[in-house]
């Protein structure tokens, strides 16, 4: 059977990177001001939170992956601590083939303990993009 073509279905989440010491302040802002709630998160090897709105999908991922020696959080940075945007997609093999055919370097990773594949790459404006694939759905599409 032929591999399905890549298709983007919706924006999945956005990611903010912080120093470990700044993580609680950023989490508290989104919980207290916007009403997001902490929810399930894979066992990544770094501290963080996945924050949810009114659905089963986390809309904000917080990742304390910056060293303490990095500059602290500040509202004066043009894009703050923004790291990447994630798009939910289908057609994993098609996506990897398309990126490779265009000479776009990418990094594909399984999410620890979750049935999800992430494909990271950079767009021409320098923005990191993540395509997120539900591997159970991918298997059934073949």
Automatic annotation (TrEMBL):
<dbReference type="InterPro" id="IPR029068">
    <property type="entry name" value="Glyas_Bleomycin-R_OHBP_Dase"/>
</dbReference>
<dbReference type="Pfam" id="PF00903">
    <property type="entry name" value="Glyoxalase"/>
</dbReference>
<dbReference type="InterPro" id="IPR004360">
    <property type="entry name" value="Glyas_Fos-R_dOase_dom"/>
</dbReference>
<feature type="domain" description="VOC">
    <location>
        <begin position="10"/>
        <end position="134"/>
    </location>
</feature>
<dbReference type="InterPro" id="IPR037523">
    <property type="entry name" value="VOC_core"/>
</dbReference>
<protein>
    <submittedName>
        <fullName>Glyoxalase</fullName>
    </submittedName>
</protein>
């Amino acid at each position: 059977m032929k591999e399905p073509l890549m298709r983007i279905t919706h924006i999945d989440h956005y990611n903010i990177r912080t120093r470990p010491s700044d993580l609680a302040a950023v989490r508290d802002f989104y919980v207290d001001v916007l009403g997001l709630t902490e929810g399930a998160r894979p066992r990544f090897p770094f501290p963080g939170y996945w924050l949810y709105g009114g659905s089963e999908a986390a809309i904000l991922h917080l990742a304390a992956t910056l060293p303490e020696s990095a500059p602290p959080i500040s509202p004066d940075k043009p894009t703050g601590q923004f790291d990447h945007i994630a798009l939910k997609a289908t057609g994993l093999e098609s996506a990897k083939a398309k990126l490779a055919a265009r000479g776009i370097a990418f990094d594909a990773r399984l999410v620890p303990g979750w049935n999800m594949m992430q494909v990271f790459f950079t767009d021409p404006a320098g923005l990191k993009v993540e395509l997120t694939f539900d591997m159970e759905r991918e298997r059934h599409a073949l």
